[in-house]
């Protein structure tokens, strides 16, 4: 009756949940600012480009009667410059939440948000093909994983610690790796987790 309400969390738990969100927001803001600068630069280069009806078939600007050959770099970025600009954009980190893998180590589903009673793992990927995953440490994820350790945990993790009692805490010692294979994520190397 006077026990801790299951819906309340401590300030420390709240900070732990919010901290990754602030990190992600900062990264996204940095990328957005860089993209805005690149757009402004490209718009500036395009504004220097002569109209199509002012350029004759030889690429000469005939609007003022002069016949100087136009510099191709003044018109805009070359394909090589655009490719270099795109390569310099840092990849964004995408995060997915995964339920238990099947016995072959394949995560058949993923979600952009935690699904209570289903999500056990968190996978992060920069390229959408290769990713690193950890076991979630929320009480719901731990409870779901404990339903069947051999079915929900062992296909994706090497376990250290006592598996015969409900752990108070699960710590990921080493991230696991997974690779996208069509619509599924396949475990390449298992995560190493400690049950405490």
Would you kindly provide a written description of the structure presented here, covering whatever features stand out?
It contains five helices and nine strands, in the order αααββββααβββββ. The strands form two sheets. It has a six-stranded antiparallel β-sheet, with no helix packed on it. A three-stranded mixed β-sheet has the order 5-9-6, with no helix packed on it. The longest helix has 37 residues, at 11-47. It is of the alpha+beta class. It is elongated. It has two domains: 1-91, no CATH class; 93-195, no CATH class. A hairpin with a 4-residue loop joins β3 and β4.
Brief overview:
The protein has helices spanning 11-47, 72-75, 79-87, 139-146, 149-152, and strands at residues 94-98, 106-107, 121-125, 130-135, 157-161, 170-174, 176-181, 184-189, 191-195. The protein has 196 residues and is an alpha+beta fold.
Can you give keywords for this protein?
elongated; 196 residues; alpha+beta; three-stranded mixed β-sheet; 9 strands; six-stranded antiparallel β-sheet; 2 domains
How many alpha or pi helices? 5
- For the largest sheet, list the strands in their spatial order: 1-3-4-7-8-2
Helix proportion: 25-40%
What is the mean pLDDT? 80
In one word, what is the shape?
Answer: elongated
Terminal-residue CA separation: 28 Å
Order of helices and strands: HHHEEEEHHEEEEE
Overall tally of domains: 2
Please outline the major beta sheet. Answer: 6 strands, antiparallel
Number of strands: 9
Structural class estimated from helices and strands: alpha+beta
Strand content: 15-25%
Rg from C-alpha positions? 26 Å
Low-confidence segments, given as residue ranges, are 52-76
């Amino acid at each position: 009756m006077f026990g801790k309400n299951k819906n309340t969390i401590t300030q420390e738990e709240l900070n732990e949940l919010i901290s990754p969100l602030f990190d992600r927001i900062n990264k996204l803001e940095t990328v957005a600012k860089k993209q805005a600068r690149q757009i402004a630069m490209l718009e500036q280069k395009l504004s220097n480009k002569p109209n199509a009806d002012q350029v004759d078939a030889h690429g000469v600007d005939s609007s003022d009667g002069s016949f100087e050959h136009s510099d191709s770099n003044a018109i805009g970025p070359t394909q090589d410059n655009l490719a270099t600009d795109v390569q310099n954009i840092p990849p964004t980190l995408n995060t997915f939440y995964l339920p238990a893998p099947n016995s072959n180590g394949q995560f058949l589903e993923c979600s952009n948000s935690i699904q209570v009673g289903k999500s056990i793992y968190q996978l992060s990927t920069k390229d959408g093909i290769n990713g690193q995953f950890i076991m979630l440490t929320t009480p719901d994820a731990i409870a779901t994983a404990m339903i069947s350790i051999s079915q929900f945990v062992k296909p994706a993790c090497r376990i250290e610690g006592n598996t015969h009692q409900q752990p108070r805490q699960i710590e990921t010692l080493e991230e696991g790796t997974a690779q996208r294979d069509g619509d599924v994520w396949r475990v390449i190397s298992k995560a190493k987790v400690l049950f405490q």
